[in-house]
Design a protein that fits this description.
Radius of gyration: 28 Å
Oligomer: single chain
Distance between the termini: 69 Å
Largest sheet: none
EC number: 7.1.1.-
Catalytic activity: a quinone + NADH + 5 H(+)(in) = a quinol + NAD(+) + 4 H(+)(out)
Protein name: NADH-quinone oxidoreductase subunit
Shape: flat
Helix content: 55-70%
InterPro entries: NADH_UbQ/plastoQ_OxRdtase_su3, NDAH_ubi_oxred_su3_sf
Structural class: mainly alpha
Membrane topology: Multi-pass membrane protein
Length: 123
């Protein structure tokens, strides 16, 4: 297979072969597996607890706040690592230092706000 479209034909052929192998494996699995559905197997499984009542439950907002604070700290860590490498570069020292302290100031302001609103208490 030569030429420009030969490369595409090779990729297409490999794609068809890969899909055929996966589909064949799934079909063989379906033919060879035992099929014995019981009422216990067909019930909804939820973390080992038997499902009782409706599927709707309320969640407290504090869990979302903890997740939000985790995302804030993760973003903070993502920005700190590149900053540490640029800080050592000549000519960027003081500029990057001021920018990072402004960034950390905003993060600290958010933490202080959450602390003052008593969001970080677990009771």
């Amino acid at each position: 297979m030569g030429g420009y479209f030969g490369s595409y034909a090779l990729v297409f052929a490999l794609l068809v072969i890969g899909v055929a192998i996966v589909a064949g494996a799934l079909m063989v699995n379906r033919l060879l597996r035992p099929t014995r559905p019981t009422p216990e197997k067909l019930t909804t499984y939820e973390c080992g607890v038997d499902p009782v009542g409706e599927g709707w439950a309320q969640s407290q907002i504090r869990y979302y706040v903890f997740i939000y604070l985790y995302v804030v700290f993760a973003v903070d860590a993502v920005f700190l690592f590149p900053w540490a490498t640029v800080f050592a570069a000549p000519g960027y020292g003081m500029t990057t230092l001021v920018e990072m302290f402004v960034f950390l100031g905003f993060i600290a302001l958010g933490i202080v706000y959450a602390w003052r609103k008593r969001v970080l208490t677990w009771t």
